[in-house]
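Worked example 2:
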Amino acid sequence: MRKLRVQLIILALAGGTAGLIAGLWLTASQASTIGAAVVALCSGSLTRKETAITERRSHSQQVASDLITDERGKLPQLRDITNPILIGVHPSIRSDVPTVDQSALPTYIPRDIDESLREALIQNKFTLLIGDSAAGKSRAGFEVALTAVPDTTFLCPRHPGGIDSVIRSLQVGKSYLVWLDDIERFLGPDGLTSAKLAQMIDRSGYRVKVIATMRSHEYDRFGDHVESSIDSDYGSWRDSRDAIRRAVKIRVNRMWSPTELSRAAPHRTDTRINRALTVAQRFGVAEVLAAGPQLVEAWHNACAPGVQPRGAAIVRAAVDVRRSGVHGAIPRQLLEDIHQNYLAKFGGDTLRPDPFDEGLSWALRPFSHSSVSMLTSAPGNTFMAFDYLVDALPHELIPDHTWNMTVQGVRPRQALDMGFIALLEARHDRAHTAFTIAAQAGILAAEAAQATVLGKNGKVSQAVTELRPIYDRRLTEFGERNPDTLDAHAHLAYWTLKSGDTTEAIRLLRSLFALRREILGHDHPDTLDTELRLANAIGHAGDPTTAAQDCRRLHPRYVAVLGADHIETLDVEARIASWTGRSGNYEQALALSTAVLRRRVEILGPEHADTLFTRGRIINWLAAVGRYREAYDEAAKLHADRERTLGSDHPHTLHTRRQIARLTARVKDAEKAHSVYASAVVDHVRVFGEGHPITQKLMSRARELQA
């Protein structure tokens, strides 16, 4: 600025000189006018220059605030990133060798997915690494990118709002790598949307690659199996799903393969790697290097008197807030309020707990022989639980006190997310509360979500009654092609089918299919999804053979658009098996379902909800072909697995209870069967209510057996 003022003085003198020279042959007034014009032109140029400098400086300050920069405040090249911990790679346990740099990561051991990842990075614009916490996603992504595209400008947003700075930083002709570790933190209207993703990777002349990571649990929240469970095709969820669908997906296994372990063996001289290999049969190497198991053990041990019960309660509170559906850091005050109930559960004052500040400091302190901590701090005196702890905690419902305090203390859109998580857990009371908060804030998706709660509570006709005016209002206000209208259209079609009005449901789905095909294209995932729903509606209308044929016809298109191993492609295969069985071909359905189970175990894992669902289908087909004892034994195993992974009150667990009840009547006496039915009735009344159709059906069957 000082230099600019000097330039203005010089130009003013130049203007005066120009006036004197002009005065040699012009009149005084003319000479004065020329001098003034020269000054005006020059000063105008400098003013524009000053404005441009100010704007660039403001942009640079904003970029430094929103994106990771180097020590000069500039955007770094990927090859200049020397500390990947700063961009999301988990810190490592400490080495036992004093001469080793304790802040350095161990030598990178190539993973089996590296070649596929390198190919995806080079050939595609958006790559998503999916796997459990501390499976090694971020490290693999960083190391492979470093060898594949080292000379790209590295754009790493610090928070969701940083996505806008990413877009503003892009220049034609330059190469960029956008790094989104834990991409779920950035998804949503205030961060990454499908439109903003398109601005990054679809603009002509821009060379941009996006690489992201996502925990398996978070990725599952955007699958069609979730949509069918909670009817959650609302705007924000759908937009985030559309963004994720654009990625080439690569799964990173938590447990290392024999080949990976053999690659690590020569590096046993590093005590950190040696320690991880020693327990590699029980834990993933990457999770041990990140001190995950040790951290969990220390957390559990801290509940004892004289250790750190206050800190353990603080950590549990932070973990449960994340499990409730809140991804961002939470304020200290909310953490302080919530943790009190956990501390009381542990034993309260009898444990002689330290003050809150000391407990918080303990939770933030790096674990022994490690650089990781149970909590991480964020700007604004906010805190977040280490994601490994979230995944390591056995599945159980969030306590009421935690859930209620959290839903009242978060943003309305976060409350909407909490509502859908509550629906997955069959906590319809919580879902209603969360959706009401979101609806009162004007979030359109919450209206349809409230109707979903009615449907899930067995009030299907009332759900349809509520949805009809919502759809009509959006149709009038926004038009039939608006995304919010299409969402309401899909909700209405879903619950109309559930109500038993298959004729109206098919009409709604056909019109929705025509709209989505026209707007999105014949092979857009949403169009395919609607066509699949239409096939299911035809099956429910009494034509399972046609439904099976339509699903078979759709399968190659799903493979072409989403890939053979995509979760939704697997869902089409499962539906083919289901409608084949409902057509009366039980043996064929059993064979097809067994093949689906094998694929889902391999791709999704043995405890994935879809894998467990397929096991339930196989039980049905075993019973249908008369293999009742085998079906009964499989149902007992499935119930134990679902109770362990989903909880005893989850709808899927209760569904297996009903299967066991029916099979008990086949393999045991009526008295035993009545006892099983009566027990199931008690739990269904408690979870669903006495008036729910499923509860009523159970009660009727129990009375028949008693008679």
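Strands lie at 126-131, 153-155, 175-180, 207-215, 248-251, 330-331, 375-378, 382-385. The chain is about 65% helix and 5% strand.
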